[in-house]
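Lab notebook, bench 4. The sequencing result for the construct came back, and we need a structural model before the next group meeting so we can plan mutations. Quick request posted to the team channel:

Model the 3D structure of this chain.
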Amino acid sequence: MASDRREGSDKALTKAMRELQLRLEQNVPALPATAVELHEQLGRVLRKAIRDEVLVNGVYDVGQLLRLTPASRSGDLNVFALTGGPKDFGRTGSPQRVSHFIRDDGAVIHFALILRERRDAPLDLVAYGFEIYFPSQHPIAFIRFDLNDRRHSNDDLGLRAHLHPGNEDLQLPSPHMSPIDALNFLLYRCRPRRDTPRS
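Done. Here's the predicted structure in token form:
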């Protein structure tokens, strides 16, 4: 009896989460037509952050860390991986400016996108992960915005787009962000507004 109620509640919650996900996907700006164009747009954002002294990297590092490569899925030649620096799964290493995008406060930013080019249509954003981590563990270990592939189990739960707030096992609903918006948010806004915590 209790398991029937739990199953009914779970189905209702899944339906509600899917409806929330649909609302959060509204009004996402269209992407450019090609992966090369998006690569160039992200490069401009990163170079501006360097000029603004938000990133401590040199302009030359953008060309080394921002990569566009074929990401063949089932022989699909129109699929590309666009990456910004390597993912540090341990988030414990001492980041190096030449191998990571490092913010002025020491936070490390990296990202990865899977893109599909389509004829006579904007790019299809298949998946993304935009992460910032703090080697000092302050104010939090990491924050990551994910958009999973439509075939991922999170999509069935209504959490295709979600946020990890410092824990891989915690997932909060997130808007489906454009790559430019996600990167700008990590560069300029994902930082404490006070030097000391609220009392």
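The radius of gyration is 18 Å.
Will bring this to the meeting.
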